[in-house]
Write a structure and sequence with these properties.
Blueprint: E1 4-7, H1 12-23, E2 29-32, H2 40-49, H3 77-86, E3 95-98, E4 101-104, E5 124-125, E6 131-133
Amino acid sequence: MHVRIYHNPQCGTSRNTLELIRHAGIEPDVIEYLTTPPSRSDLSAIISNAGLTVREAIREKGTPYLELGLDDPALTDDQLLDAMLSHPILINRPFVVTPMGTRLARPSEAVLDILPADAFTGPFVKEDGEAVLDAGGRRIA
């Protein structure tokens, strides 16, 4: 299964998502989007395929969101995409693309919706100690 993750190694949610993918026995294409941002058309497609609006895909916390005036509701999707491409830190993370769909994996266990359920054979615990999968590899509600 071909999987791509737009990853920020400094982000705990992104690290947990990457490890969940690997826990499924899949080695994804890891794109560190801060240094290798997607093209405009790829970013637009990823956001759309995830079922989000461009505004929903913008990260506000820890970014120049307010300084750039991106909270202005009059800004168009094109203007917001321009800002995201000029400042990749504004791209929320991690986005994961699989043949089963595209998700913004926030929280990290959202990635389970687009990975084969039978790929997990054991427990998984996030960095913070939160259990996500039980001993049988089943999602903990």
